[in-house]
Amino acid sequence: MKVKHPAMPDRRRAGPIPHLLRQTPPDVKIAEGLAVARLVSAGSSIRGAARACGLSVTTAWRRYWWIMDWTLPRHHGLPDGPYPPQRGTRACPAGRPYLPTLDGTRHQPRPAVHRVNGLPVCDRGLVWTVGPIGCRLGVSRERARQLSHRPDFPPPVGSLSGGRAWAVDDVEAWIAEHRPTLTDGPWSNYDGPDIAVKNDITAAG
Fold first, then answer.
1. According to DSSP H, which parts of the chain are helical?
2. What is the pLDDT of residues 32-89, one digit of tens each?
């Protein structure tokens, strides 16, 4: 007769089942992740999206990033690739997971981003990272980063200091279509703390 080890709790009455004993089907992750991502893109917080979708905050956060990570290659003109591990799990305890189609292949290089007189530019002119985009929109850097993952947001033209960068003209065109109340000139609705960024970019424009 098999004797249960006293240190092992009864799974029927214990807490969460260990990760390796319960794998959520990908179709469930996709449905939940898309639902959370849509709500977050519409302005909801992760906590609010979790409540609306009937998920725990941790699960909603993991599903959101799972969808963002899985679809990230398409923002670079590449296929989605295999399903990535979820952030915050043993398979990916910190940071973004390895994405083979993005990290493990060579693809057509995007226009190089460099600095001229201290300002980031590409061959199409001035570029912004998520910080200045957030300042332009009057939102936080985190919110700007979330918006940059929307399917209708313009693709980045390169990278700067390890982060993605967008042509200012592309961002302004997106603002004109999706945030028309902000189109009466750069920074007109911004009065935040990054005044140096505002002054530099306004002067360059």
1. 26-41, 46-53, 57-71, 100-103, 130-137, 141-148, 168-178, 195-204
2. 999 999 998 888 888 999 999 999 999 999 999 999 888 888 877 788 888 888 888 8
Residue pair 92/86 in contact (Cβ under 8 Å)? The answer is yes
How many Cα neighbours within 13 Å face the side chain of 104?
A: 9
Integer Cα distance of 37 and 20 in angstroms: 26
Distance CA 201, CA 199 (A): 6
Q: Using the structure block, give the residue that is written with the tokens 């200045």.
A: 132
28 alpha carbon, distance to own chain's centre: 20
Listed in sequence order, the DSSP H helices in 42-80 are 46-53, 57-71
State pLDDT tens for residues 85-130.
888 888 887 778 888 887 775 444 545 677 777 777 777 778 888 8
DSSP lists the bridge partners of residue 127 as 167
- Asked if 174 and 154 touch (Cβ cutoff 8 Å), the reply is yes
Q: Which two tokens stand for residue 176?
A: 């004109």
Please, what's the largest Cα pairwise distance for the chain? 80
Checking phi first, is residue 54 left (phi over 0); if not, alpha (psi -120 to 50) or beta? left
Question: What is the residue whose two structure tokens read 């029927």?
Answer: 12
Alpha carbon 60 to its chain's center: 14
Contact 38, 68 (CB under 8 A): no
Measure CA 5 to chain center: 44
CA 155 – CA 32 distance, rounded (Å): 25
